[in-house]
Hints:
Helix content is 35%, strand content 18%. By secondary structure, it is α/β, with parallel strands linked by helices. Strands 2-5-8-11-13-14 form a six-stranded mixed β-sheet. Helix 1 (5-20) runs antiparallel to helix 3 and helix 3 (32-49) runs antiparallel to helix 4. The longest helix is centred in the middle third of the chain and has 22 residues, at 53-74.
Amino acid sequence: MIHSKAEYYHYLECDRKAQSGKIGFMRYLKDDIWKFIRILRKAEYYKNCRKDIIGKIYYYTNIKMRLRKLSYKLGFTIPENVFEEGLSIAHYGNIVINPHVKIGRNCRIHVGVNIGLGARGELPPVVGNNVYIGPGAKLFGSIIIGDNTVIGANAVVNKSFPEGNISLGGIPAKEISKKNSNDIIKW
């Protein structure tokens, strides 16, 4: 969660590196996913740090509206203060995340992912650091996903895998390999 202007800039730098490494000037202006991430981080900064009246007005009348408009365009339902630094969104398309979910540093997320609550009264999922979430994956319920985990395409994760350093796949998800996210992505 962003608590200062310095953290805001740190999060943006980590997100930029995670998104594609080097983002050139034209991509900086034209890439809608990168624009969404920047506006998301700005919204988090204003929501968490700017408690003055001008900051609140700017947050609700400008930033929140721009974030909502871009969310509709890209198909994202990604609330503020869910992801730590290093967010990477591979493609635009349907991504739905519950606002109570907590996701660690350096998460790469693909299209068709849904992360949310299960039955009434359950706690939201908690996802560790350096997690790769493949296209179409579904995570729900009171689960914990450990660090350096790979969640395969179309996997349905409804139980915890807190140990991390594994690959998950299938419906329902189970450990399919000891290959971890560090084997797949250079963070």
